[in-house]
What does this fold into?
Amino acid sequence: MGLTLWRNARLATLDGQAPWGLIERGALLVDGAVLRWVGAEAELPRGLAVEAEHDLGGCLVTPGLVDCHTHLVYGGDRAREFELRLQGATYEEIARAGGGIRSTVQATRAASDEQLFEAARRRALALMAEGVTTLEIKSGYGLSLEHEARMLRLARRLGADLPLTVRTTYLAAHALPPEFEGRADDYLDAACAWLPRLHAEGLVDAVDAFCERIGFTPAQVRRVFEAARALGLPVKLHAEQLSDQGGSQLAAGFGALSCDHLEYLSDDGVAAMARAGAVAVLLPGAFYFLRETRLPPVEKLRAAGVPIAVATDHNPGSSPTLSPLLMLNMACTLFGLTPEEALRGMTVNGARALGLADRGRLAAGQRADFAVWDAEHPAALAYRFGGGNPCRRVVAAGIERAP
Ligand code: DI6
Ligand code: FE
It folds into this structure.
């Protein structure tokens, strides 16, 4: 296959130290699924056999977005629970009364494969329409071997069907299923025993858990992480979302790829994450939708040099959003990130939270995953909110996908 030239663009490469890695009148040279050359058009190497050429008319180009934390496969919705919360019930109260995650488990188990797949596919298409080229999907609404396997297989099928990279995360330690009521440790024995079987089927890229008063204790999460380590699988953790459980320190001890949420993260947690090189995945959609008031310690994360990612956390209970751009906006308005930090959070640092070094920047050797925007400056991506999608074209692994 010959080379494809994408020219006449303003490139936000996010590479190097310059603000946004900005290149005016830039060009990208794509060789199959990989970027061969990125730079100012005037410096384009001569004598190359360019087979196809696209004039981008001065549009902005960024790396394809990486949504590194979602729960995209599930049945039903939780609109009624939203009503209850608005009347004063808290997320924790609803969970303790058997609603919350458990109600989605019930709806997911009851749905057919095709129903689950179609619903997840529509959600993925909405994310892709705003520039997403890599998507993480967690299990955790099945909570039995059969249903966790089903969720992970459907996630894999989504990645095979759509021009999109899907990374799967095993989150059986999300909530206690009703058949294990009062027997959390027995449930974790089972969940740890399922993992090698699912891994042998090629269904698991990473392992996650919900470390919380309404989830699992650090001692329980440790057992899940040990099962992951025995298989050489990387871990990540829903940590310090509603209270400080010390989950981040535990996860850091296992060399976690990321700790996610982090509103209640302590100074010790920040230090442990910095030492371990774990990414802090901030989820402003869940913070907003649960009407939380405690902010993640962004300034301390920056000072410690912890890389910050931003994701949708798409799920029916705490973050039913399908707009990565809205999350960029909220990461700035609610958490105080700069627009550039927010975009790095949904590209290069999102990729890092998935253990992927081959994407998230526009640079030679990176995957040819990029998005073309109807925007003058990259700050515009975090600036707008709600509606009017500015994404014009998306290229994944060098191939432009149909609009
Ligand atoms: N934290 C979250 O934000 C999601 N899971 C978790 O552990 C929410 C899951 C849900 O409410 O369905
Ligand atoms: Fe989550």
Remarks:
- The mean pLDDT is 97.
- The longest strand covers residues 3-12.
